[in-house]
Design a protein that fits this description.
By secondary structure, this protein is α/β, with parallel strands linked by helices. The chain has a single domain (22-198), classed as Vaccinia Virus protein VP39 (Rossmann fold). The protein has 7 helices and 7 strands, in the order αβαβαβαβαβαβαβ. Strands 3-2-1-4-5-7-6 form a 7-stranded mixed β-sheet, with helices on both faces. β1, α2 and β2 (55-60) form a beta-alpha-beta unit. It is globular and about 45 Å long. The model has no long low-confidence stretch (mean pLDDT 93).
């Protein structure tokens, strides 16, 4: 970057026992939202730019993708966005304070379509328990996918987990589109979305 930033677009991942203090990270008490599996940042960068009074953490495990998000966020002066290179499940289970997140965005997660690989899917009872712990009262998880079977799987897992309310699809007309969404829409594939609220 050609200029010195007054914020660090990276969240450190060298202390795996750390629980983040969002007020310390962002310097304010604005609501915090996570995107899990942020890819190249096509969604979160535009969403953060359009919602400056909210804070965002883009979680992605691939270094090149996280570098891209941090670099682009820094160049655009998105002081309300941080990039973190770690596994989504670990971040939610270990590094987020209780009742500290307002929205968790899950955009086009890997569906692991083969039955023997279902155990690798993000949406599992253990993940939902961790997500429920970190969400503030009334907080939501928003899932968007092109994979109908995975969508049905997620609905079944959520429906059998206590403490959640299915709010159905939200109006995403004004939401930025991820790179995956543009690709799937160009191919004529339907997109499935639903949000679940923590009770």
């Amino acid at each position: 970057m050609s200029e010195t930033l007054n914020f660090n677009p990276w969240l450190p991942n060298n202390d795996l026992l750390r629980v983040f203090d969002w007020r310390e990270v962002f310097g304010n008490a604005n609501p915090v939202e996570l995107e899990l599996g942020a890819g190249d940042g096509g969604f979160i960068l535009e969403y953060a730019a359009g919602h400056r009074q909210r804070n965002f953490v883009a979680v992605e495990r691939l270094k090149g993708r996280v570098n891209k998000i941090a670099g682009r966020g820094g160049r655009r002066g998105l002081a309300n966005l941080r990039a973190l290179r770690l596994q989504s499940e670990y971040v939610v289970a270990r590094m987020c304070p209780p009742a500290s997140v307002s929205v968790v965005h899950i955009m086009f997660p890997d569906p692991w379509p083969k039955r023997r690989h279902f155990k690798f899917r993000l949406i599992q009872p253990e993940f939902l328990a961790a997500a429920r712990r970190v969400l503030a009262d009334g907080g939501v998880v928003r899932l968007t996918t092109d994979h109908e079977e995975y969508f049905q799987w997620a609905d079944k897992i959520w429906s059998s987990s206590a403490g959640w309310k299915n709010l159905g699809a939200w109006n995403a007309d004004d939401d930025p589109k991820s790179d995956f969404q543009r690709q799937f829409e160009a191919e004529g594939k339907p997109v499935f979305r639903c949000q679940w609220q923590r009770l």
